[in-house]
Each structure stands twice: as C-alpha cells, then as structure tokens.
Amino acid sequence: MKHPDIYSQAQLMELIQEIGFLPLLDSGIKGYSAEEMVSDDCRYVMLPDGGWDWPLWKWKGPIVTEGNVVYGKFFDKKAGFISRLWWQDFYNYRRSQHPLPQEGSIEEAILLTLQEHGSLITRELRAACGFTGPKMRSKFDGYITRLQMGCYIVTEDFVYPTDKHGRQYGWGWSLLTTPEQLYGREACQCPRTPEESFNRLFSHFKRLLPDATDKQILKLIK
Fold first, then answer.
1. Residue 172, CB half-sphere, CA atoms under 13 Å: how many?
2. Separation CA 205–CA 45 (nearest Å)
3. Is 125 exposed, middle or buried (0-12, 13-18, 19+ CB in 10 A)?
C-alpha cells in the first residue's frame, strides 16, 4: 500500500479517517499497518538505560479518546483502528456473524459485568468475573478477544500506572467498555442489511488494497 511516511499523531489520525481501517501491527498484508506506515523515528526503539520509546504506541490513546476512531481487536484477533464513518457497517456485519452470547455463558457474564460498571480496565474486569486463579489470565483474554471480534467490546482509553514522581510508565492497560455505552446506540445502528454492509466493506478493501488477495481481505472483514 503506497502512502507517505507518518511523522505525527495528527497525520495518523488523518490517514485513518481517509482509509477507514488500519491495523496497528502486522496485518499479513505488506505495508498495511500503522507500524509499517510511520517513519523510522516513530517505531519501537530500546534506549541505552534499558527503557524504550515508541511514539506510535503513545499516539493510540489520544487518537481513541478524540472520539472519531474505534479501537479494538477487530482484524483477525489483532488490534486496529476503524473510522466512525465505517463503524456502522463493520458493526452491522460482524454482529450478524457473531450472535449475542448465549444466556448463562461466560461471554454473557463478562458483558453484563461490563455494562453494570460502564468501563473497567482488563484486570479489574477479570477479577470482577472471578478469573483469579492460576493460568486464568490467558483464558480470560481469549473471551475478551472473541467479544471484541464480535464488536461487543471496544477500548475506551489506556490507563498507565505512575511512579512516586507521578510519571507514567509501562505498556498501559486497556480501559474496556461497550460501543453502545461509549458512542450511543444510534452510532451502532445501520440502515443496511448485513449482506449490503459486507458488500460495501469488501468493495472498499478491494479499492484500498488492490494487490491483496480475496482471502486476505476476508480475514480482515470476518
């Protein structure tokens, strides 16, 4: 995918609005990820003192909280950005492929807990749902990923711990919520059928990624 190098958060936001969909990291399609599109100066680097710097990682929070971009694990269980202009069709089709969790299921319990609290960071949600035993973290993360793939859960922001000087550190925690809670129910309603939404999505990706195979495009949509 041809594009100018991205040097700032504002440029990345503009690009997302222009193309509609952008995986954060490797998408399986050469050149089609924020990681590959940013300039070398904005990529991950280890510092001499053992720390790290990654401007792209720091940009994603402000981009999400600005309100015009939806963020979550949407692309083959990998994280990425979706413009609000395309969210309705994406949500519409994905929900048709991922029906509401069954009554009494773990996925339903997770959603009900999240709806009750409004938003929770991942570890708080995990504890509230009782996933506190050994090896429960990865199991719980699998449920969260499936719910994000179905557009039932999105990331509202990223929360970072602070040291004794008030400085943020670490990779941060995802603050999770539902799209209805974050954007309102109207933003999640689409006037088209799921099939019509799929056709719009597929045509858009074909124009956006002319060298990608149909199989690669379907992995992004489904």
1. 17
2. 31
3. buried
Tokens of 22: 């952008």
Q: For 119-174, write each residue's pLDDT tens digit.
A: 999 999 999 999 988 889 899 999 999 999 999 999 999 998 888 887 777 788 99
155 SS3 class:
strand
Here the tokens at position 82 are 């979706």
Residue 141 and residue 71: Cα distance in Å, rounded?
16
| Residues 131, 71, 199, 147, Cα dihedral to 10° | 10
Residue whose tokens read 């002319």: 210
Closest listed residue to residue 79, CA positions, set 8, 169, 144? 144
pTM above 0.85, yes or no: yes
Q: How far is residue 168's CA from residue 148's CA, in Å, rounded to a whole number?
A: 27
The amino acid sitting at 124 is: E
